[in-house]
Amino acid sequence: MALPTEFSRRGFLDRKLAEAGAIFDTQTKAALALEFGDREAELKAVRHLGLADLSVLPRTGFKGAGTLAWLAEQGLGLPKESNRATRQIGGEVVARLAPNEILILGCLSGINGSLPESLETSWTALPLPPTAPRGYPLPRRDSHGWFFVSGAHAPTMFSKLCGVDLSPGKFDDLAIAQTSIARVSGIIIRDDRGEKLAYHLLCDCTLAAYLWDCLVDAMIEFNGRLVGLAAIRSLEIQP
Length: 239
Fold this sequence. Notes:
Distance between the termini: 36 Å
Largest sheet: 6 strands, mixed
């Protein structure tokens, strides 16, 4: 079984994942937890209450004047207002955190050839000085941990840690909450998979381990469990 130390890209929770029995994907250069040894249980958990760490997957951000215009030129479908997200054809999620600030989460179907990485490359290749305002990149991959919470009990579990009502009747699909979770500032994006509730949760990388422990503790009451990316990929992607 591969250990996190064998990969060139590691996340913020490698030790915790390994101790929990994570089986890492040996087909990539990143310490990506594919499963935790009981695939059938995980397939049930992602529909009931599952928690995954996606921190090694690609993501990025851009901020400042000219950001939206440049991203639109790259063919992205952008949200029309702040605190909303859109799904891209390739499966990526584009979140508008402020009038001129965008967060992009990579597709969960793979780790290579991702849109976030290609956009970072395109951005750095722009001629300097720029001919028009274009803001600046925010490399979220190194600054923020990325968790995924799914299942029917997710909103109730979140209610133990967060003051925002994330239930379906109050928090729409593709809505964004920039709020406090267990006293940690974070970003919650609802991104349903088919008919199953699902949320992305991002927080400062220095607090990722603390918030992870809070989520694991909050799940106990609902018989939630850790899941790997393989179980998440079993869920239908919302069109």
